[in-house]
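Annex B. Sample input.
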Amino acid sequence: MNSSLSRPAQQAGLRPSGSTLAAVAMFVVLLASYSINAMDRQIFPLLAADVRHEYGFGLAQVGLLSTIFTLGMAVAGAPTGFLLARLSRRSATVAGIAIFSIGTVLTASAHGFTEMLLYRAATGIGEAMQLTVIIAIGTSYFTRFRSTAVGAVNFSFGVGAIIGPMAGAALLATRHEWRFPMIVFGLLGFAAIVLILIAVRPWFSETRAAERRDDAGLATAQTLWNRNTVLLTVLSLIGGLIIYGYLGMYPTFLREHLGFTPAMTGRVMSAYGFGVFASIAGGWIGDRLSARKVLVVSFLIAALLGYGLFYAASTLIAQALLSFVWGLVVSGVIYVNLAGYHIRSVSGHLNNKASGVFVSSLYGSASIAGYTIGWLATSTGWSAAGLEQISLLACIGALLALALQPSRMALPASRARESAPVTAK
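Annex B, continued. Sample output.
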């Protein structure tokens, strides 16, 4: 018997027999393409001091360049969720990678601040399309482990976060030219496009039937306008300022305030990447524990880490250790579960849109995170900037998370069966 699916079956999202292993393999291909994004995200802050030296940009300007891509993500995130109702997920992924890669290569040819700002923002539009789609694919197919699937996406970011700074520092040392690493990572994106077109099949990428089946009978909202989604949107706005305040300007803080060399800075940022490897475990925790408990505790830990990173620690070992824990808690737990809880707060047919809302809200605030912490550092010093933008906002996030209603979020299928009432046969 022929195991292949007909075109109508593929479009309906039906799964072929024995498809789980193949689905995991295709998901790995998509995750690998997202790792390339992470490489660029980590490499530009590493190169920011060199860019600033060549162009004469101010600290706040470099901070804006480091995080402006998030404005593109904010603009494109929610529209991508709605666009997916008319465009295949695989096509949207390929288009997003192409936009991202072209913007990355063009950054190396920018003649001034405005031009570079536009190219960096364009990369965010491409990444928003790619990230929104990958989250939607993972949570639609692996419905029993939605937060874990998001954790796998962030895990792939961790891979790129480790490779990016080390490879970028090596490429910079080879050519002594900051443009060279940008061009190399941009070209890698086109290789990823070819691999996706060859390896990712529609029966996996376009799966939709499971979205409805596993949510049946659960108390999830039928609209995006509900208490949990509103609270999670505010928490995502706070999360964007915290996460990208760190990612956008922390390398500059290490190099200009603590006097770290590019190689030392690369090692510290790689330690952060190793912490992000906990993302799958962080998603697994989010699939099994109360959203309120997970987010309250993790936001409070983030507040303590902000104090340590920008105020208390000054040695390479201390900064590397704190960055590792930051990656573990903030990226591995807060980021992952904000995305997962957005999707679990609504009925399955809203997966695409919920993913888009998460991307737009978190990256909307992230778009100004580098600028604000750079401005605060210029006005009040780095220590005060870290306490204000990281620690204080994290405490506010913990308080808001107390108002979440975990009972209104979908459970993984296994737990839904365990909690269902027993009926007589």
